[in-house]
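Before we proceed, please read the two lines closing this message. Tell me what the token row says about the fold.
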Amino acid sequence: MDALTALANGLNLRAKLTFAGGACGEWVMDHNSDRSIWFHLIAKGEGFVHSPAFAEPLRLEEGDLMLFLPQAAQHYISYSPIHAPRDGSTTRITALADGDAALVCGEIRLQTPQSPLWRTLPAEIVLRRQVVTNDLHRLVVMVIEEAGAERFGSEAVIERLCDGFFILVLRHLIETGAVSKGVFSAMGDRRLATVLRLIHGEPWTDWSIGELCARAGISKSALAERFSAEVGMAPIEYLTHWRMQIAARTLSETGITVDRLAERCGYESAASFSRAFKRTFGQSPAAFRKTQAEGAA
């Protein structure tokens, strides 16, 4: 298992479809969240992104894909580069084939949106159909075709396909060097990728620096220097951070007690686990769970 696959599995990254269809008239799509990665695929026609991140409205055409990270500025997509509908009251929703434009929109909710893992990615990611890799292009075409088919299970199929194209987007960023710092950048380094694969895939192993270096074929000094320069923290510090990411996901998705979670994470007591959790996220496990529940309501 490679480092990116292990990361996606560890965080259980799943897409939730919010819209797949056509739009007519003076339409506007307003999807903003400081807890989610939003994606918008233009399935037909065109749309214009209005955001302080761009000097002028950004035109998106059929096959173009845009993602907004939680740190993105407030934005919306509309039918016009010059007219900004105040709300969605003028939008007429239609079947994909009947719309002046058509979009597939959704979100990937993050348990820890302020994590350095996501903050090192661009706040706005634009992928033009002309420049994406063949594998991502084929998946985008499949999403558009499924969105227009309106067959049994289409929404579920689209969501699973969107899971796939989010991973392909991350792979595209890694392979093209579009991220210069952070975990995803480090995956472009063969030896650092090996270390990340071990940490992501086996987070509860009692890894030592010596063992990680032996498995990756790198000296301790080189690993310390290169890992810290790319990721922003030492390997063992990142291991603890990753364990807390898994713990945060578990708290959000299950009813496990803090005592049981502390034991699962290898801590001798709930108190020591809670201190480590609070150092990472700035709040106790109980407070974090409450915040997550309120955000999902």
Observations:
- Strands lie at 16-25, 28-29, 36-44, 46-50, 58-61, 65-68, 76-78, 91-94, 101-109, 124-127.
